[in-house]
């Protein structure tokens, strides 16, 4: 059986592992349009200021499945699903028995004058980080559009180089998808202490140049900010071009069934390109989260090699990050408002913060800042849609552990803990 995987990031590599585990003799070809070997994308901001090297972020050889045909710098452009053939930019082609589309997503560039010019970067790939690092050597002022995870990580990386950094965010707080007002306020102090300027409720009007060199950014309110370097971090969209060329069904992402199979029985999909369902709300989502991509890749690969595994959905929010030395974990429905069955518990002590969101007898969301030790246990309860009505007191305390849940007599044993 010949398996071809388009995409060598989280989903693609996890799929290769699963295929090799189930079918040791399978032929596996992995195609990547990047020239760097597989690496851990969440670590690329560290390349900007040399906190980590390329070797540090590369996937370790011992964790890579054996006997892979890994082809770098290859861009598959056309899918002939009827004849099981992929065509490439340079008119070459490749046949397959089973195909995995794990083409990921690309950064969004808003339609703003000058935002597509030289000196403006996104941060999605190893090459992006290298490009930023090169320009940053001579930069004194940087302006970042978007105060999400990418924007914040970029800002801290540039501050390590001594660059003056301003972040411009259209919404009313930093990291608005991951943080609520209270937790954002905690990090606002951390960000300010790092010397990073935050401008809320604004966006770019223009990026200004003298010749091919950025000189400043003009905001909607007319304020002009000095800039030698600009980074846009305002989200991503699924890379659907290959899927649509082969007649596969798409909406915001590539549509799949519970086995991560497309409308073509020989073609599977995983990762940021897939439209799946939110495990908490059941709503359709396109997830850009590394851990979701790994799980999708593992299940898709197993099914490609003859397994029978189901994917039950993704967290629309499942993030752990650190800003200025302060860790935060956010999972599930953290922006829900109280009422209509939703109850919210919060507790703040200095830079430590907890928020638990309940819907009826279920825990549906949480934010932990500072102390994040039991985040994994809470995450499992959310994923399982566990009845926690008898555990409310323990959950609100600081010593809750998974044994409390098991002792409550759950209707189903947890697959994560009981599988071994």
Mean pLDDT: 90
- Total of DSSP H or I helical runs spanning 4+ residues: 12
Count the E strands.
26
- Structural class, by secondary structure, is alpha/beta
- What is the count of distinct domains? 3
Low-confidence stretches: 407-420
- Summarize the main sheet: 5 strands, parallel
Beta-strand share of residues: 25-35%
Roughly how many Å apart are the termini? Answer: 30 Å
- The radius of gyration computed from the alpha-carbon positions, rounded to a whole number of angstroms, is 23 Å
The spatial strand order of the largest sheet comes to 3-2-1-7-19
- The CATH topology of the largest domain is given as FAD/NAD(P)-binding domain
**Chain oligomer state:** single chain
Please identify the top-level CATH class of the largest domain: Alpha Beta
CATH superfamily of the largest domain: FAD/NAD(P)-binding domain
Shape label? globular
The proportion of residues forming helix, as a percent range, comes to 10-25%
The CATH architecture name of the largest domain reads 3-Layer(bba) Sandwich
Molecular structure report:
With about 425 residues, the chain is an alpha/beta fold. The chain folds into 3 domains: about 1-105 and about 235-305, FAD/NAD(P)-binding domain, CATH 3.50.50; about 120-230, FAD/NAD(P)-binding domain; about 335-415, no CATH class. The chain is built from 12 helices and 26 strands. The strands form 7 sheets. A 5-stranded parallel sheet has the order 3-2-1-7-19, with helices on one face. It has a 5-stranded parallel sheet with strand order 9-16-10-11-12. A 5-stranded antiparallel sheet has the order 22-23-26-25-24. Strand 14 (about 215-220) and strand 15 (about 225) form a beta hairpin. Helix 1 (about 10-20) packs parallel to helix 8. The longest helix has 15 residues, at about 290-305.
């Amino acid at each position: 059986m010949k398996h071809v995987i388009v995409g060598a990031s989280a989903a693609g590599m996890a799929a290769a592992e699963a295929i090799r585990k189930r079918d040791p003799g399978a032929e596996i070809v992995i195609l990547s349009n990047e020239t760097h070997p597989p690496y851990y994308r969440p670590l690329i901001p560290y390349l900007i200021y040399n906190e980590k090297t390329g070797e540090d972020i590369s996937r370790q050889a011992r964790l890579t499945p054996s006997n892979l045909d890994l082809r770098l710098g290859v861009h598959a452009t056309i899918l002939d699903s009827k004849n099981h053939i992929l065509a490439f930019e340079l008119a070459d082609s490749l046949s397959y028995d089973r195909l995995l589309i794990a083409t990921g997503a690309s950064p969004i560039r808003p339609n703003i004058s000058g935002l597509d010019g030289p000196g403006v970067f996104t941060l999605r790939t190893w090459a992006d980080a290298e490009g930023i690092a090169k320009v940053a050597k001579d930069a004194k002022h940087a302006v970042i559009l978007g105060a999400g995870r990418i924007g914040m990580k970029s800002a801290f990386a540039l501050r390590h180089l001594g660059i003056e950094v301003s972040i411009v965010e259209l919404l009313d707080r930093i990291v608005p998808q991951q943080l609520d007002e209270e937790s954002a306020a905690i990090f606002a102090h951390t960000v300010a202490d790092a010397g990073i300027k935050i401008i809320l409720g604004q966006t770019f009007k223009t990026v200004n140049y003298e010749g091919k060199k950025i000189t400043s950014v003009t905001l909607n309110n007319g304020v002009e900010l000095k800039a030698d370097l600009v980074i846009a971090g305002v989200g991503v969209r699924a890379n659907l071009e290959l899927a649509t060329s082969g007649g596969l069904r798409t909406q915001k992402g590539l549509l799949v069934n519970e086995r991560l199979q497309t409308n073509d029985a020989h073609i599977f999909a995983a990762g940021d390109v897939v439209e799946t369902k939110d495990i908490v709300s059941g709503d359709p989502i396109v997830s850009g989260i590394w851990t979701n991509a790994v799980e999708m890749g593992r299940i898709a690969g197993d099914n490609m090699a003859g397994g029978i595994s189901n994917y039950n959905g993704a967290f629309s929010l499942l993030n752990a990050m650190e800003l200025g030395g302060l860790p935060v974990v956010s999972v599930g429905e953290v922006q829900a408002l109280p009422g209509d069955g939703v109850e919210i518990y919060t507790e703040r002590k200095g830079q430590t913060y907890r928020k638990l969101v309940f819907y009826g007898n279920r825990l549906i969301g949480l934010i932990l800042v500072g102390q994040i030790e039991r985040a994994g246990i809470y995450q499992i309860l959310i994923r399982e849609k566990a009845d926690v009505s008898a555990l409310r007191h323990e959950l609100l305390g600081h010593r809750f552990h998974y044994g409390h849940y098991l002792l409550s007599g759950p209707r189903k044993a947890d697959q994560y803990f009981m599988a071994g």
